[in-house]
Amino acid sequence: MNGKKAEEHRVDPGAVILKLGYPLSEDQKRISDAVVINWKSKKDTLINAVCGAGKTELVYHVIATCLSQGKNVAFAVPRRDVVIELYYRIKEVFPTNTVIALYGGHTERLEADIVVLTTHQLYRYEKYFDLIILDEIDAFPFKGDPLLGKMFFRAVKGNIVMMSATPSKGVIEYFSGENRAILELNTRFHRHPLPVPRVVKKYGYLKFLWLYEKLKQFFLENKVVFVFTPTIDRCEFVYKILSLKLKDGAFVHSKCKDRTKIIQDFKLGKYKYLVTTAVLERGVTFKDLQVVVFDADNTIYDSQALIQIAGRVGRKIDAPEGEVIFLVNKETDEIRKAIGTIKSKNTHL
Q: Rounded to 10 degrees, what is the CA torsion of 83, 142, 175, 312?
């Protein structure tokens, strides 16, 4: 779709209603207002905000501003699961505007006031969007894929907002350039500290014994758990061992065809724990969630991934605390870096 085609779909400015339902915190409002000012000034913006800061809420007002001028918006994320969740959230917040979700196997309609889509689907557009918001810029598959980056910039004719809790050095350097801005938010909306991971060293089957006992403790406290694993094979093996004694669980990874249902069943309380890979590293929020990273010393985990995983815990205002445990043979530099970064963010409280 080119720029000429885009003119065929213009928003009715009188139809824009932002139905948030709750106030932004003082810090959130400061960032939200600055994003609007930047967009009006035709500045591209990077929002560097900690996990659980409420990044999506930070861009609702710039979306509303864009729509009120009769312009259109894209909200892009790398993963389909997050697109689906975002679609329902945004549709509720903007009840009078057209919102569509666009991802592999779900591409029947391409035009709307707000298009929520995977980064892969941006290839369908050329100089089309007045505003593109890209969250999870450091997540697979967008991270490290130059083609997806080119498609992203090709699809915009206005300005961009990128968001991340762990932006790379290259991204920060890019947004330090002319006519660009970096906005930082180092606290969560509920003003509680980020949970600091604890390192537990165990070896061989002692890892499984320790994990089994820890999960039982969490269950007695009516808390639910994600057990992260570095690979699909490891995910299924860890679940196989745990399920011998703990029946109220499941596993989920990128090759599970029914993973959407499994995650939904977890939300409904049908499971007490999920053994998972990186598919649940981002874009999910559950009350009283605890996290164990099994083999956190695996080379697949860099500090950014570990920070994102730790960021699943304590996101709810009525449950702002929880445990993050790195279960390892040895403590790595990436683990130390992740813990150090989290501790440094907490100094801003």
A: 60
